[in-house]
Amino acid sequence: MLPKKLRPFLVLPILLVLLFLSLFLFANFLIQKPSFQDSLIKALASDSGLDIRTTKIEVNLWGGVGLLVHGLEARSRKGTESIVASKVRIILSKRDLVRGHIVPVSLSLIDPRIEAPWGYGRMGKGSGAVQWARAFPLIWIPSLKSVSVKNGHFIVQNRPIQFSGLQFNVSRIKSEPLTFVINCKGRMGFKGEKIPFGIRGTITQDRVGQYLPSLDVEVQTKDIPVNMLPWPSYLTGEKGYVETLLKVEGRLDGAMSIGGRISSVGPRFSLRQGKRKMAYSPASLTIDFKSVLQGKRLDAPSIQIRTPHG
């Protein structure tokens, strides 16, 4: 038995717990109704421009009031982009829930498989990189403040490029102009190699969509085979790996500044001088450079190459 003096202090917390449990049970009952699930899917589909299917939706309180969606399949209505995920966690706006509206503010895709084309797509003309960068409409739902991907697998259609083991986070930090912080790491599969990489920085996009996104990011890669990189015509990469640390700034449909460092320990090259060919194996190699990329043209006004004897 509790002392009588303590009972008044315990009544309110107990009532609040009972109220919370009642609301949770009611919400879980409501979410199981087909009509409610249909309205939710229609709302998400309308904002994202996707046809969406799910196998099960339930209330989820991990990280906030929200939903746990099982067996998500989302496909573009106008293009070939698609997203398939075993689970999706959606955090909802509490303020809008009180008003009877379902407004997602956070989205987390778990074990997703995402496919998008490289080249001309539903967003109109543009380079492959431009089209692919805008191929994921879920990221651009106006109400979302953050999007994350856990153990993602991205496939670039009609190109031999895949990304696996993706850990990806995007958070909106400003509305005008629309600005996101991005933090991403994973492995890029290309020509039989799996290259670790990381990207962090900011992406800015005007809400009107008149211009394509602007980037201010740092890109880091490891274990790139030297024979995969473009070298001068007199130099051929034979053996070894390089690491890169790059700074990328600019708009995707304009001039982009790319600079940084490429380094390697113990690479081996084939050096041609006229008709002669000789092996070239420096103990280490460091290249610092600054360049400007516009369209398909790359200008590099500053390149510094250093070796132990250079």
Short structural description:
The protein is α+β, with helices and mostly antiparallel strands. 16% of the residues lie in helices and 54% in strands. Strands 1, 2, 3, 4, 5, 6, 7, 8, 9, 10, 12, 13, 16 and 17 form a 14-stranded mixed sheet that branches. Strands 11-14-15 form a 3-stranded antiparallel sheet, with no helix packed on it.
Chain-wise SSE layout:
Elements: H1 7-31, H2 34-48, E1 50-53, E2 56-60, E3 66-76, E4 82-92, H3 94-98, E5 104-117, H4 128-133, E6 146-157, E7 161-174, E8 178-190, E9 193-205, E10 214-225, E11 235-239, E12 241-251, E13 256-265, E14 268-273, E15 276-280, E16 284-294, E17 297-306
Parallel strand pairs: 5-6
Antiparallel strand pairs: 1-3, 2-3, 3-4, 4-5, 6-7, 7-8, 8-9, 9-10, 10-12, 11-14, 12-13, 13-16, 14-15, 16-17
Beta percentage is over 45%
Shape field: elongated
Computed structural class: alpha+beta
What is the helix tally?
4
Q: Which spans of ≥5 residues are poorly predicted at pLDDT below 50?
A: 120-138
- What is the percent of helical residues? 10-25%
What is the total number of structural domains?
2
How is the biggest beta sheet arranged?
14 strands, mixed
List SSEs in N-to-C order.
Answer: HHEEEEHEHEEEEEEEEEEEE
Residue-averaged pLDDT, rounded?
78
Alpha-carbon distance between the two ends: 85 Å
What Rg is obtained from the alpha carbons, in whole angstroms? 26 Å
Count the strands?
17
